[in-house]
């Protein structure tokens, strides 16, 4: 048992649960209104599944867009599978929640950024998670489908840190 409550990792797990719930609703009912998602994930995560040519093109991280066309969205407790179109080439992906670095819905200016990844182990001296922060225009990723992200408000946890 740890001598402190690990609020950072608890918050990360809660936010990943929020993403799971949103994606499960989209899987069941489709995207409502103008909602769409930019999801950046770690392509080196051991459980991430994507085509070899995508791994070569995006060796560390990749941003996918779920907006006009996506298919076969399947949501599980550990991650989600989806087929996306890359230049008229449908490709299946599997993205574990622990591989997600950012989740943004620019239609409502909502975004989450995960600074560290929780591997689910209890280390004696774990690195504390960094607070979620807003992305600046100059560090926004290039979108593979050629779509641009808008700035989004991000939950700030600084005032709750010791």
Description of the molecule:
There is one protein chain. The chain is α+β, with helices and mostly antiparallel strands and 162 residues long. The C terminus is likely disordered. It is built from 2 helices and 8 strands; from the N terminus they run H-E-H-E-E-E-E-E-E-E. The chain has a 5-stranded mixed sheet with strand order 2-1-6-7-8, with helices on one face. It has a 3-stranded antiparallel sheet with strand order 3-4-5.
Q: Find the count of extended strands (DSSP E, 2+ residues).
A: 8
Oligomeric state of the chains in view: single chain
**Residue-averaged pLDDT, rounded?**
78
Rounded radius of gyration (Å) = 16 Å
Which H/E pattern describes the elements? HEHEEEEEEE
Helix count from the secondary structure assignment: 2
User: Given the helix and strand composition, which structural class is it?
Assistant: alpha+beta
Strand-residue fraction? 25-35%
The general outline is: globular
Largest sheet: 5 strands, mixed
Helicity level, as a percent range?
Answer: 10-25%
Give the strand line-up of the largest sheet.
2-1-6-7-8
Distance between the first and last residues' Cα: 21 Å
Question: Which structural traits does this protein have?
Answer:
3-stranded antiparallel β-sheet; alpha+beta; 162 residues; disordered C terminus; 18% helix; 5-stranded mixed β-sheet
Structural topology:
Blueprint: H1 7-29, E1 37-42, H2 52-57, E2 61-66, E3 70-75, E4 79-85, E5 90-96, E6 100-105, E7 110-113, E8 153-154
Parallel strand pairs: 7-8
Antiparallel strand pairs: 1-2, 1-6, 3-4, 4-5, 6-7
